[in-house]
């Protein structure tokens, strides 16, 4: 039985992935970094984030197998490039290092469609930079997921996304497959599926490839 480490477990993809991890017979323990207090579960171990950094795992001897990163914010919510960079680059990289320190062999990262380290768009640039950074951390196996516009119930309102979802609902049939919006539940299912992968290497999963989950 394995141990999963997840950050971003209360977000759109993360909360659905957390449910899948807890229900899976593949994992006997699921450790989650969270600022919120989550409902108790026999498998669940919560590590509360109270400051600007991810705390170390309280048990230095615990073995982690798979690390899932569902962290992500928007410029509108972060309100500055520095805070956006903190959530979308520094936290995921720190999570990777903590996982490695506990023996993790697989890292699964939620990125975004259009991620490119030399992009002139700040959002895409940071996503591309974290993809590259994670790929160089030394994990034997890395899976990068690049979903397009995410569909699903968010707790917070994102006006830009709401407008895009309305446009998609009306004109979605005109949008090429690569750019079609995707249900967040499909991304979560894909992450769990690829966590059982036995191949070594770096794998990038584009949004169009995730639509079948």
Give me a quick take on this structure.
This protein has 213 residues and is α/β, with parallel strands linked by helices.
Count of distinct structural domains: 1
Strand arrangement within the widest β-sheet reads 3-2-1-4-5-6-9
Shape, per Cα inertia axes: globular
What ranges have pLDDT less than 50 throughout 5 or more consecutive residues? 164-168, 170-174
Total helices: the number is 7
Query: What structural category arises from helix and sheet content?
Result: alpha/beta
Can you identify the CATH class?
A: Alpha Beta
Q: Sheet with the most strands?
A: 7 strands, parallel
Order of helices and strands: EHEEEHHEHEEHEHEH
So what's the oligomer here? Answer: single chain
Report the β-strand fraction as a percent range. Answer: 15-25%
Question: What's the N-to-C terminus distance?
Answer: 24 Å
Helix content: 25-40%
Looking at CATH, which topology would you report? Rossmann fold
Q: What is the rounded Rg?
A: 17 Å
Mean pLDDT: 90
CATH superfamily membership, which one?
Answer: NAD(P)-binding Rossmann-like Domain
Q: Can you name the CATH architecture? A: 3-Layer(aba) Sandwich
Q: Could you tell me the number of beta strands? A: 9
Notes on the protein architecture:
- It is a single chain.
- This protein is of the alpha/beta class and 213 residues long.
- It contains seven helices and nine strands; from the N terminus they run E-H-E-E-E-H-H-E-H-E-E-H-E-H-E-H.
- It has one domain (2-210): NAD(P)-binding Rossmann-like Domain (Rossmann fold, 3-Layer(aba) Sandwich).
- It has helices at residues 12-23, 75-78, 81-101, 122-135, 159-171, 184-194, 207-210; strands spanning 2-7, 27-34, 44-48, 66-69, 106-110, 141-146, 150-151, 182-183, 201-206.
- A seven-stranded parallel sheet has the order 3-2-1-4-5-6-9, sandwiched between helices. Strands 7-8 form a two-stranded parallel sheet.
- The two termini are 24 Å apart.
- Mean pLDDT is 90; it is low at 164-168 and 170-174.
